[in-house]
Amino acid sequence: MRYVIIGSGAAGLAAAKTIRERDSGGSIQILSHDQGAYARCMLHLFVSGKRTEESLTFVQKDFWERYQVEHIPYTTVTGIDTRRKKVRTKRGDLPYDRLLIASGSVSSIPPIPGLREAENVSGFRDLADAVQVKNLCGTDQKIVIMGSGLVGVDVAYALTERKMPLTIVDMAPRMSPRQTDDVTAGIYQRKFEEAGVTFWFDRGVGSVEKEGNRLTHIVLSDGTRIPCDYLIAAAGVRPNIGFLQDSGIETDRGIGVDAKMQTNVPDVYAAGDVTGLSGIWPAAVEQGRAAAINMTGGDQAPGEIYSMRNTMNFFGIPMISLGIIPETECEIYTEETEGEYGIAAVKDGCILGIHKIGRIDHSGIWEYLIKNKVQGDWNAERIFHISAADFYDFPEDTRSRRAAVRLASEE
Ligand SMILES: Cc1cc2nc3c(=O)[nH]c(=O)nc-3n(C[C@H](O)[C@H](O)[C@H](O)COP(=O)(O)OP(=O)(O)OC[C@H]3O[C@@H](n4cnc5c(N)ncnc54)[C@H](O)[C@@H]3O)c2cc1C
Q: Which domain, by its residues, includes 170?
């Protein structure tokens, strides 16, 4: 059996390992358009100098030999001939019996005239992007980051650690709006400003000014003109499906898959960001594993991954956001003490979400309570100072109660 995998990221490598564990005789080839097998989540640490290119890898050195996987790096797939079961590359065609598409996503650069083709613009997704950004450190280049979501603030923090002043522009009213509320965002914003970051919220980039093919200024939607020598677009990603045109593989936002991660075309599977089902590392791994089990004759749907959890840690201040804090139709509880702030939303006796900045040592138990919709008589004291004793008010005999008591005792 010839297994071919497009992509040596989280999903592709999890799939390769699983295939080998279940089929010792088949050949496994992995194509990647760059060197692959590096953790995108740590690219900001490469910019700040805390990781080298080598220490970004997330597989052991002997992975390829141990699992007998042939890695073909620097090879871009340009199309798939699903009728003849061949993957097209600029170096020639590669036949497959079972194919996994795990090509991830690409940075989404807004269609502002002149922006996409400018040479001093990049996303922050590939190692090549991180190398370009790192090369700016120590220069007097004026950097603008478009988007203050998790990727935007990670790279901003790395640049402040390299003493680079910069500007962040976001259409939202505050930093990382999905993970913060006004208070938590404000605490971080002040620290970023002290470190040389200028924020422009509630407005987007309306147009750009260029000299030749280089940006010189961005002009915000309110007319503000900001000098810009390099723009990092961190305003979102989209599934990397451009090379699937004419393949017959159905796509919508991402590649359409069934519960077994199989596409509409027999023997072609997809996993990870390219499916558009999720945009996080553990989900890509889980989908890659499930696809591999099915490619080797099994029957497996990917397990559920709790994706509504994010952590940040800037300037030595940790923060966690769990679940959602709706604007209306819920009870809101807050607690503020020296150096700490927490906000929680409760509806019908269940905690919907918690944001906590400062100490975050109850995160495990909070995640459990939110994920399992554990009913309780919640208030600020009981949420932010939870202990095992609180669980003795809950009905006996539930597995979830026992697990919650155990977790609370461990915290
Ligand atoms: C800066 C940053 C920070 C992040 N932080 C976090 C985090 O803290 N936590 C978290 O859970 N997730 C995080 N993510 C998201 C996480 O990295 C992705 O969800 C995960 O990498 C998806 O894995 P994947 O295997 O689907 O795709 P990728 O890891 O993107 O791998 C795609 C692979 O496909 C290859 N490829 C693409 N196109 C082609 C082609 N045409 N031909 C050949 N090969 C091709 C690429 O070379 C690559 O090897 C972050 C992402 C970024 C960019």
A: 121-235
